[in-house]
Structure formats: C-alpha cells, structure tokens
Design goal:
It is built from twelve helices and 13 strands. It is α+β, with helices and mostly antiparallel strands and 375 residues long. The protein folds into two domains: 101 residues, Phosphorylase Kinase, domain 1; 264 residues, Transferase(Phosphotransferase), domain 1 (Orthogonal Bundle).
Amino acid sequence: MKHDFERPGQEIDLGFAYRFRIGQEIGRSSYGIVWQAIWLQNNKAVAIKSVPRQSMVGIAQDIGSLWTEALKREVSHLKHLHDRHIVRYLHSGVFEGMPILVLEQLHETLPNYLHKIHTNVKKPHRLPLAEALKWIRQVAHGLATVHRTGLQHLDIKPSNLLLTAPSPLGHRLKIADFGTCQKDNGQPHIFMGTPGWLAPEQAMACGTNDGGSYVYCTDARSDVYALGLLFFHLVTGERTEFSRYNQLAMSSEGESFLQHDCQFNGALSAKDVARFSKPDCKIISSEPLAVLETALLDQHTWRPQFTEHDVVERDAAIKRQTSNAVRSWQFSNLESQTGLKLLETFCAVKPENRPSNGHAALDLINEMMIELKIA
C-alpha cells in the first residue's frame, strides 16, 4: 500500500491531537524523505520525516530494514536530545506500518544559505575566519550535548546543518539527521557516515564481523574530526585531499577500496594547509584529483601512480582554469596561524590527539575567538 502522505494535501493521523496535512517535499536523507506539513490542531508548520514505501519497492529486504531501523533510531535519540543547536523533536508515531517523525520546520540548509549570500555562484562558498568560527561554535555546542548523552553523530556535514529563519540576532544553526547516530560504547559498528565527510577511523575499518562485513571503531572524536572538515570547507570553499579521495574511491570502487590501498591517512596535506592559510590564493579546481578520477573510473586501476609529469601537468591546468579567480579578503598572520592550529588539532590523524568531545572542542573555539577578539 502506498503512503497517502506521498501526495501533497493528504492527511495522516497519529492519534489524539496529532493530525497533519502534508505539503511539498523539502529534503532527503540517505534513508528518508522530509515533507512540509501543517499540524491541524494548532495550524503550526512542522516537518515530517519517514521512509516512503514507494522508495522501498524493488530493493533488498535487508536494506529496507536498515532504512526503517535508522528512522526508529533517530526517533529514539532525538527524544532525549534537548539543545538550541539540535533540531527539535515534536512527536512520533506509526502510519500504515511505517515510522513517522515530526520535527520543527526550519528555514533552510547551510549550503543553501551559503549559495544565496555569494553573488558569483561559480566560486566556492568561502567565509571570513570570524564568521566560520561562529558557525562551527554552534555545531560544537550541539555536539557537546550529543556526546554528553553518550552518543556520536557520525554524519556532520553541511547538508545536515539547518538554519532558523532570520531574526535581529541572526540565524541559529541546528544539527539534524540522527539516523547514523550510534551509542558511544566502544563497540565496533558497520559503516556509518557520508563519503567525503569521514574521519579516518570511519573510512578505514578496524576489523570484520562474523558475517565478513567491515566494522569501524569510532567515538566522539570522530565528530570532532568532521567539525574540522566543516571548518576547512567554510574557510576555503573546498574539501581536504583526504575527503575528496575517500569520496571518489568509495563511490567508484566501494567500501573495500580504502581497506586495501588508501593513499591518504587522513592527515592534512601541504596543499590543504596552503589553501587554508593563504585565503588570497587562486581558487583551486573543484576537481583537483582529476588524475585519480581518470585512473579509477576509466582505467579501473587499484593504485594510480602519480609521476612528476602528471603533477606538473595537473597543476598547470588548474592554474589556467583559475587564473582570474582571486579572493577579496585576506587573513592576518595571527588569524592564519591560530586558525590553522585549531584546524590541525581537530583533524589530527590519531583520535587521541584531538579534543575528546564536542565540549572540549567548544572550549578551544571559544579560546581562539577570545584570542582573536571575535565577539
């Protein structure tokens, strides 16, 4: 049977005082769809999330079970997470045998906001250091609550960060999509997260389970690494070499590729450092790993070998493509040094060298903002 709420204008009834009229689709996650809705009892705008039965037609039963379990897990976690920087849980129930999650309706995603505030949409969406710090401070605040309750989010990325409507105090940022969230109990788990936004320990397995599937050993410090990736992205408009590599490798070769032959260990590369610490440099190509892409997708090789000639030719091409695109603002030396120190701390390869959790990361961000006299 098809969900009625897959059609705008239909109503769902979750019991006494919980009837909703469904509007347009406003978002998707890896396992669910989010719709606008009106809470009929109070005429309040809300968001409703579920796994649409239509999307489950033709997929393996175990995959469908994973999707519904992810939404049930999100419901369970959000009931106990109360923070001004976490999307607010309103209600949950079951409709036509499928779990339903009712959330506050927020204004837009962080990527949409960044897109709108830049007049030249062909350029990466980059922010001054002070503004980037204000955004990641809000994320760290939400993560502090997540970690304090014994959880790890494992999917911190721009599209999972939502903004409230504008107000005289500005936007407030909130963490959403807790379907990948796991208990931080030291137990290995199956792959969780989004390729391109992973900590090293999320990308490279620590073993296999009885069924032969890879398992991963993560904790709250994995979210701190992702916070560093977000910081890098906000300042540079790019992603790190490791992030681009693991996204490309996993999308083209699958999960096993990184376990057998990974060229990056998660450390910031010299090019990453240059991008971050010199914001007045030319914009880097949006596909800086074009040689790798060719090797993986066309030649289907396990380990592409970069010759000196390859690197020279690639860098020359990047320079030609971006010769006229320069930044309009610069870091001071203090900003560059202090910001890079924070980035390197968050993105340390070994988890033990990162802040232990969101609260510790928040303390470091606050210390840095005080040092730079950022209100």
